[in-house]
Amino acid sequence: MIAPKLVFDLAPFARDAERARILPALFLVNLRKRMKDIKSDILTITTVTPGPVVYPVAWKTERQRLAFYATDGFGKGIPTGRVHEPGGVLGGYDVLLEATPDAGEITLVNTYPNAVFIVGEYQQPFHQNTGWVQVDTVMPQNQVFAVDAAFDVWDQTVRETA
Asked: How many structural domains is the chain composed of?
């Protein structure tokens, strides 16, 4: 009778199992350390200072043009001050980043009262013509950037625990 026996050490597997158990928590720690950089890069992509007013002004409708002049610039005077000054649209941005063991979430917020008409869903043609970045157009780019950063952090975390 022949009975070959193979003996192997389980210690390396136990070490890998422990490493796999702690990786998600270490990943979150490392990701939170990078949040400030991620936020800064997202704001750089999003907060582009617009150019000068493009004439003739591209009104969305004739009614809007008439209302603007009839209400003295919607109550703000004519010419209306540029809202990229401090406290304006560009200063109203914030990036909220949330990371949990199961998911990550990026929320781009702008607290400027009329941001929806300047960089948001109801962006007016004359704002687009001057170079205001519509948020919806840069969110895919921000998402790609954030996912790439998360993968970089994951790779770093795995290398650190090897």
From this structure: 1
Q: Compute φ and ψ for 108, nearest 5 degrees.
A: -100, 120
Domain annotation covers residue 23: yes
Specify whether the CB–CB gap between 152 and 30 falls below 8 A. Answer: no
Q: The pTM is what?
A: 0.74
Q: Which domain holds residue 132?
A: 11-161
Q: By the 8 A CB rule, do 27 and 157 touch?
A: yes
Q: pLDDT tens digit string along 83-135?
A: 656 678 888 999 888 877 777 788 889 998 889 989 999 999 999 999 999 99
Residue 2 lies in a domain: no
For 27, 77, 91, 151, the CA distances from 111, given in Å and listed in that order, are 31, 22, 9, 30
